[in-house]
Every structure is written in structure tokens, then in C-alpha cells.
Amino acid sequence: RCTSNLKYSLCWKSSKTQKICWFCNNAKVAVLGASGGIGQPLSLLLKNSPLVGELSLFDIAHTPGVAADLSHIETRAHVTGYMGPDQLNAALKGCDVVVIPAGVPRKPGMTRDDLFNTNATIVATLADAVARNCPEAMICIIANPVNSTIPITSEVMKKYGVYNPNRVFGVTTLDIVRANAFVAELKGLDPARVNVPVIGGHAGKTIIPLISQATPKVEFPADQLSALTARIQDAGTEVVKAKAGAGSATLSMAYAGARFTFSVLDAMNGKEGVVECAYVRSEETECKYFSTPLLLGKHGIEKNLGLGKLSAFEENLVADAIGELKGSIKKGEDFVANMK
Ligand SMILES: NC(=O)c1ccc[n+]([C@@H]2O[C@H](COP(=O)([O-])OP(=O)(O)OC[C@H]3O[C@@H](n4cnc5c(N)ncnc54)[C@H](O)[C@@H]3O)[C@@H](O)[C@H]2O)c1
């Protein structure tokens, strides 16, 4: 991909363990659902990154405007807008990473599963296009219900014989971001230095923060730990309520989606030791899909780092989540099996 022929000689990040040529950081990234509440700020953050060479923005509405607007920013990512089903194939050709925030968000009183009927079809249609146009791309799904949209994406890729479980991610990063922010607030720490793994899935009680594994180490009395865990699990609903019908988390999700995409790109570029939690095909529990910390590499998941040592409280949370997760996974798989 290097157009400079200089390879590493002008590398801006060179070190003994990490060699990345600025000219080689030329990834083509697509955002599907780019005109939405998440899509627009996410595209802005991607446009602002030196890791992105080409930014391909697809939506069923408004992408010419969003792309024209972003293209005036003085960063080097080349932005192109694609609108409507006729332009979907063109949007995806040659993409290295595809991020999918397309789909309807929650309104007050709705669960993420209430979005299934609308978003399952949208995600299946988009996954079908990815399978046909850029089957080797890293696929990062933001559209809810994530617990079902990842099985849907995987089954669609299988239909084309191009499924690679190391490259299909359910983006749960917002749960980690929230856990870091809330723990830092309670303990008076710098949130940039806090890391709380969050495992399981991305809905209600399937969101399992592992406070016992937080760094730096933090301790809470039992009642405070329960309240903190519940707040992390319900944080999305906190935003849905505060927005009072105007949608769900968009700005914090754009931040989290960008963080995850940059980690995937960094790892693809050869950076070592990149770890993110994400909801992926997994052998770590009896659920086919489960989120745990993952070591990322050039080809996606390099190693699943597993659940680690859980406290008794966290073991109960995992046991409590399994039933719901299995149901959501089956619902996604059945949807694809019954698709015409
Ligand atoms: N993973 C997470 O942590 C997380 C967090 C917040 C929201 N979400 C989910 O992200 C999704 C998007 O949320 P939002 O607030 O941006 O919604 P939004 O309604 O503001 O934007 C959705 C965008 O998707 C587009 N779209 C619809 N159908 C499409 C299709 N077939 N192809 C391409 N684009 C299409 C719409 O035109 C719109 O621009 C929702 O499903 C929401 O539940 C996930």
C-alpha cells in the first residue's frame, strides 16, 4: 500500500518494537450509516486520524452533504460519499475496515431487543454486501441489538463461505469507556489511566463489568459495587431517558467506535500489545459469542485473553447472563436461517 517507496525510512513512530511508516498508514475505512447520530461524529473522528487514507461514507440519505462537509477538513484522508443501495457495492470495494452504525436507535421504554425487527434486516443486507465486496475486511458492528447482530453477520458471511471469526467484532467499547469514567469519578482518578474490562454482551444484565480486574486496583463496599455495576449496565438507558425521545448515545458512542477502530488499525499496522474487549465468536463460556479482552494483531483477533479470575459477585453475573445471551444468539441465527 506504500506509495512513497520509502517504507520505514521516514517512519514517524519507529521504535525497536514498532515500525509504522506514515506513508503506509493508508487504510480504507467505510462507515455504513454515516449520516446518523453516531455516523457523523464517528466519521469526523476517523477523518481526523492519520491512520486513515480513504474514508468511504455510505447511508441511505444525506451522505453527499456529510462527505462534502468533511472533505474540507485539512487532513489527508480522502472522503467519498455514497448514497442508496445502488452505490453500496462501490462504497465497499477495497475496504480494510467496515464500521456499521446503521439502524434505528432506542426511544424511552425500549430495550435493545425491541430494535431487532428493523435492525436485523439492515445488518443482514449490509453484511451481505461486505461478503461480496470486501470479505477480508475487519467488520465492526455498532448496530443494536449487538448480542444478535454479530450472530447475524457471522451467518451471512458463512453463506458466502467467507466467514473469518477473527475479523467480526461487536463493538462494546462504550461499556468499557463508561465503566472507566464512572470508576474514575467515584475514586477521584484520572479516567485516562483507568481500565475496567467489561465482558459478556451488550444489553442490560449481559453487560458484566469486572471491577475486581480494574487497573489501578480499586475496592468498593458491597452496596456501592452493586450500584456501580447496575449503573454501568443501565448507562445506555440513562442517556435514552435524558434525550427524551431524540435517540440514544451518539457522541460517546462515536468516541468509543473511533477508539475501537483505531485499535484495530494500530494492530493491523503491526503495533504490539493492543488489547480491546469486544463481542466475538468465543469458546470461553458455553455461549457461542461472548465479549472478553482480545489481543489484536495484523489479522484481527490474535488471542482471546479470556475471562481472567472473577470474584464471586462477578461469577454470579456471568451465570445470570448466559440464558439471555444464548436466546439472543439463537434469535440472530434463526433470522438468517429463515431469510429468503
Ligand atoms: N454498540 C453500542 O454500544 C451502541 C451505542 C449506541 C447506539 N447503538 C446503536 O447504533 C445504531 C445507530 O444509532 P444512531 O443513534 O446513530 O441512529 P440514527 O437513527 O441517528 O442513525 C442511523 C443511520 O442509519 C441509516 N440507515 C438506516 N438504514 C440503513 C441502511 N440500510 N443502510 C445504511 N444506512 C442506513 C439512517 O439513514 C441513519 O442515518 C442503533 O442501532 C443504536 O441502537 C449502539
Automatic annotation (TrEMBL):
Residues engaged in binding substrate: 106, 112, 144, 178
Domain Lactate/malate dehydrogenase C-terminal, chain residue ranges per copy: 172-336
- For the ligand (NAD(+)), the binding residues are 33-39, 59, 119, 142-144, 253
Q: Which residues cross the membrane?
A: none
A GO BP entry is:
tricarboxylic acid cycle
* UniProt domain Lactate/malate dehydrogenase N-terminal: residue ranges: 28-170
Which residues participate directly in catalysis?
202
| A Pfam family that the UniProt record links to this protein | Ldh_1_N
Does this UniProt record's set of keywords contain Membrane? Answer: no
Its EC number(s) = 1.1.1.37
Family listed: Belongs to the LDH/MDH superfamily. MDH type 1 family.
**Subunit structure of this chain's protein:** Homodimer.
Recorded hits in PANTHER family, A to Z, give: MALATE AND LACTATE DEHYDROGENASE, MALATE DEHYDROGENASE, MITOCHONDRIAL
The protein here is known as Malate dehydrogenase
Organism expressing this protein natively: Salmo trutta
